[in-house]
Design goal:
Layout: H1 2-40, H2 42-52, H3 55-69, H4 76-86, H5 88-119, H6 124-129
Helix pairs in contact: 1-4, 2-4, 3-4, 3-5, 4-5
Length: about 130
């Protein structure tokens, strides 16, 4: 009976991970790819910054955070484009803020659910030995 429960929980976690991977690919195709096109055109990017004003910094930081959370979205282009769009110092600070916010979110989620999920696949002794 206990093995059956464990099997179901494992299957749910695997299904969730597959769904998240699918969501990551979808997010890249819908958001990441068009975003990479925009940031590769410096004039278009600067026009977007001018159009959005102060909010462009918040939105750009959110894009950087999304890139950290959804790993298939390449980050290098975003970070380089931030320098073109906002200048070296401000672009760096916006990128660092987005990276920090995403890292805190990821840490909190893993802290909340991580060990419980890992226990489905590995014994407590194995976890502690690592």
């Amino acid at each position: 009976m206990e093995d059956r429960k464990l099997f179901r929980k494992r299957a749910m976690v695997i299904a969730l991970l597959l769904a998240l991977a699918g969501l990551g690919v979808y997010a890249y195709m819908r958001i990441g790819a068009p975003l990479m096109e925009m940031v590769s055109d410096t004039e278009r990017l600067r026009a977007w910054v001018q159009e959005k004003g102060w909010w462009s910094r918040v939105i750009y930081g959110a894009f950087v955070a999304l890139q950290v959370i959804v790993a298939p979205i390449p980050g290098g282009a975003l970070e380089i484009a931030a320098g073109y769009a906002f200048g070296t110092l401000e672009g760096t600070l916006i990128c660092l803020a987005g990276i920090f916010a995403a890292s805190v979110l990821i840490f909190a989620v893993v802290r909340r659910f991580g060990r419980r999920v890992v226990r489905l696949f590995f014994s407590e002794e194995k976890i502690d030995s690592l």
